[in-house]
Amino acid sequence: MDAVSSAASVIAIIQLTGSLVKLCGSYIREVKHARDEILTLQRAITGLQRTLKDLQKNLQSDNGKSLPTSSRLAKDIPNCLSDLQELEVKLDPGMGKNLMRKVGLRALKWPLKRTEVEGVVKNLETHKSSFLLSLQVDQTSLLVGVAQGTDRINQHIDLGKLEGVMEAGFESFSDRDEVECLQGTRTELLQIIMEWATSPSQKSIFWLKGMAGTGKSTISRTVARSLKDTNHLGASFFFRRGEGDRGNARKFFPTLTRQLMLWNSELRPGVQKALDNDPDISSKSLREQFEKLLFQPLLSLDQLGPQNQTAVMVIDALDECEHDQDVRNIIRLLPLLQKAKSVRLRIFLTSRPELPISLGFSEVGDHKYQDLALHEIPEEDWPGEGVIQELVRITVPLFISAATICRYIENLKWEPKLRLRELLKDQAKYVSKMDKIYLPILTRLLDDQESDKSEQQQLLQEFQSIVGVIILLAVPLSINTLSLFLGIEADQISNRLDLFRSVLSIPGDRDQPIRILHLSFRDFLVQSRTEFYVDDLSKHKDIAKSCLRTMQNHLRKDICGLSSPGARRADVDPQGIHQYLPPELQYSCRYWIHHLKQSQAVCPEIDNVRLFLQKHFLHWVEAMSLLGLISEVVGMLDVLYIELPDDNSVLANFLHDAKRFVLKNRQIVDEAPLQIYYAGLVFAPRISIIRTEFKQDLPSWICHFPRITEKWSAELQTLEGHSGIVNSVTFSPNGRLLASGSSDRTVRLWDPAAGVLQQTLEGHALPVSSVAFSPDGRLLASGSDDKTVRLWVPVTGALQRTLEGHLGRVNSVAFSPDGWLLASSSFDKTVRLWDTATGALQQTLEGDALPVSSVVFSPNGRLLASGSSDRTVRLWDTATGALQQTLEGHSRKAYSVNFSPDGRLLTSGSSDRT
């Protein structure tokens, strides 16, 4: 089918959809019992119609003949036309137009059951998705072009601008000691994975899920090795919680992009373009990084023709990525990569079956991924002696148990055969799998000290004070840092930890962090009732005390010797910060409240906490600012406040005042840390507890202090960042986000609790006049002077769709209570109602003589009120679009309208001062 034929067929379908929309409208007016089903069908038809009109424009454009759409539509258009004709027969069952006019629709019943309507809507959405895909391919074709030619490969790209996490890749130096599957093991599973990776008909994602200890990471490394040997390893990222950027998603997509460019140099021009357009792209939201660094460069390869290449990205331990929302966003974004046709992309992903990941995959749909539960797969039998069979019985399905036992047996300090016999000897007396893994190893350490009971006691004490701390740390610390943090000699820690190499990863470098080899070891210690039991509440309390002691010993005013009050944090040498704020102090500043909360012992430590804050609060805030963590302080103070006993009003008042103090000064202190002692104290209210408590830190060189308020005003904080007038603000339904629309053409999303900017949404060409969240908080609408309304996904910052149709600037936007409709009012004198699911225009409400300033839905969603410059307020029926009433009385423009919660009253505000 050529472009001309395609365009003609599309026009025929558009005409048929128009007839069907009108037919549904007649049924809506006359048939009352099935109104919801009819409206749902009408919305689906209208959405398809709008997509087809966009497709028609493409096909009839100057580039129509050269676009790849035509070949894609050869089957889709006839199938869609057939389905719509079949629907027309059902809605107009063979009576003909003349007979319809004679009999009238009142003589008819709605011919479709609810299940039939659902089936029809599903088919229409399938057709719409197919046409939208064709549109996307065409737009990509037009944007990219084929003129870039051979210059792609030779373009130079500055990888320094593309920040990656080198340690997260396969075969990184930091993972040099990590093992792969032994020869002859896991063969069936590995064969399944490799067949999936190389077969052209498989789903794009393979999710290998399994509980702790089932060997997921070992399998990931083995798969990565096989893929690398066959040149199919496109990229890899091995998450590891607590190890800087390996434990979060901040550099996840830049890391994958760097590796993919090395695998296929054709990607370089697209990535270079993204970096040229936005050198800071690596620090933007996950959605922007994905779109500009990975997705668009991959789509651009389609213009070079099919390359028949297969690239697999290995993503290990996604559950160890901090921030559940980032995990879900990654899962939402990755399936989009299958739209790149020139390269067959596969994603091999492992994780525990934790809730955020399971929810993420449930949203994606099981047609896009294949999953396998590793903990349900029994380990392959090893041929050989009965001892090996017994070991297999003990370890299945926990791979970590096999790895732990192997490390234990191969320790050269003891005779392997003896250790193995002792390990198997008492298995019957152990109840749980964890007991069978860890108790024989730990008990053996005590038995080695059998000749001296005092040595056994000493071992247990040192185990508690060293290993007990290691397993509960928020992030891993090194031997040297632990030594300073706990007040124990580094040699003593090193010697004692040497006994636990089968359960701990202990680097040769004492400045590298010690890690638990598996989290099940921590679970075992805090749950078992043996000599090695770690009382986590008591141990968290001990760690909190160490944090307080470390801060009390080291924190002081101007800790980095900056001297100048205006010294900017960005200008401070990072090495200098590390010198004056060593790792043990950094850890203490960031996690002391975490450990205090986990200990559930704030009350017993209340005096120590109060004394610390009364002396070092400003020093602590200064340190957090130098570390770039000032945004965490408010949340930490909130946690501490909640944990306080009800009868401690002194500390409660201090924390309340401290929070107000930080909120007021967060931005300036984040920029220049020492300003906490200058602008912070100087402009604090006269009766502020912080000002009173730290009056000795007020600048002595100020002779006459400025006039200040007596107490804190109602203003909590000022959110700065917009470069233009802020025209609209709104909270999300759960109160966790604040959206602001500005004349600088952006929408900004803020964390209102901490005052931190979360995302900047860019796309409008002119000022943003209005913003509104949907009732469930999943969508954000913005209206602009550029005559468009944009729908955004707040959690990702992604633009979902742009609603076009207004002929003048958009003044106001509002969601219906059920979130199905979005109303927009405009300078073009109209109000428009949009379907939020499809973006289709449902109604255009006309009647105002001048621009419409404001719109609002009634609480039940049946009425829409609009305030206009023609001095009237109008009430509309949202189902039919009919004007219900015109309220007159204002002598000037009606700027704002709002319903009372029960919907019985409507208020309006006007420039006539009423």
Automatic annotation (TrEMBL):
Taxonomic superkingdom: Eukaryota
CDD domains, sorted: WD40 (cd00200)
WD repeat positions: 719-751, 761-792, 803-844, 845-886, 887-914
UniProt keyword list: Coiled coil, Repeat, WD repeat
Chain coiled-coil ranges: 31-65
A Pfam family it matches: WD40
Protein name, entry field: NACHT domain protein
Organism, as annotated: Aspergillus sclerotialis
Lineage: Eukaryota, Fungi, Dikarya, Ascomycota, Pezizomycotina
